[in-house]
Amino acid sequence: MKKVTRLSLATFTAAMLGLSANVTATEVTASERALRIAQESLIIDTHIDVPWRLINDWEDVTKATQRGDFDYERAVAGGLNAPFMAIYIPSSYEDNGAYTLANHLIDFMEAMVYRAPEKFAIPHSVDELLAQFEQGLMSLPMGMENGAPIEGSFAKLQHFYDRGVRYVTLAHSEDNHISDSSYDIRATWGGLSPFGKELVVEMNRIGMMVDVSHISDKAFYDVLEITQVPVIATHSSARRFTPGWQRNMNDDMIKALAENDGVIQVTFGSTFVTPQANQHRARLARLTREINERLGEGTAAAQEAIARMREENPYPFATLEDVLDHIDHIVELVGINHVGIGSDYDGVGDTLPVGLKDVRTFPNLIQGLLDRGYSESDIEQILNGNTIRVWRAAEAFAAAQE
Ligand SMILES: [Zn+2]
């Protein structure tokens, strides 16, 4: 049970009403029941890009903020208790300062918690997470998005574990020294690198969760062959809805992940959710090319036509219902025990679906699940149970190694 040492009802209501710039976009239309579930449940979101947002555009998120998708007050309003903070390292830092940057971002998170210890805490274990929940604190577990900072060193992996990092996304947008990336056509290693294969063993040994989001399909299957504990896809959706796009997981992979007893954390960015949004950029590029061919690149006529075309083709935002379709699909494939949420708030710009525009909107998600017939215990599995099971399995395996 959640101890509500939280905001006053007035503040809560104000936050619910979304008294900020994007009032309609973040409208919460959930029922009393969904609001209650959001407030009483432990909500774990395995991927939120607060550190990178703040290091580029600092705001005090221990209070309400105008920008971004997350701040303390909005998170409380939405019932979010345990957003994993992504220690995100761009691919360009490979062999180029990744270790330093990761430490810098972790320092940054520690400083934030230090400034507001009555609000935030960094949990180093599931037990600590649950204790913080009982105390009414918002937990900020950390996950490292990109293994670049490990720099080929188990000592550095241990260092990040000791600093509180509890999962590592093996690669980001480009192949690195650990793994191939789903976005990189080079397929440098044909899956995991030789070091990457050893690293998975070491991650199991020390209790660091392996995040299979962002890596190539081959690397995913390499991980499954090696890992002795369940793995997590911290922010991936179902490829079924974005055919051919390797960043999401196809049905066979979702089944293999379930066999491993792992969990896929459905992510919200429209690009991940609908084919229209997924192909929007490519479509605009094609239409632009066609206009340039017809009217001559750089001519006034072409520029005018491109501007009109862009106006006629606004970004096709996905909706809450589309996101729920992903959850339904995964549940139909492998049951309720292998799905969770990894929103990527603060990480996907202005591409979030209608109804899920920021951390206030978790009650909308819960309402959608209720409307689709999910029981409260199913919803608990999605909000926390499945992630906790995988995290605990990693802890138990590590404990048994000593
Ligand atoms: Zn990502």
From TrEMBL:
Keyword Signal: yes
Full protein name: Peptidase M19
Domain of life the protein comes from: Bacteria
UniProt-listed CDD domains: rDP_like
Molecular function (Gene Ontology), one example: metallodipeptidase activity
UniProt signal peptide: 1-25
Organism of provenance: Aliidiomarina haloalkalitolerans
One of the GO biological process terms: proteolysis
Gene3D superfamilies, per database record: Metal-dependent hydrolases
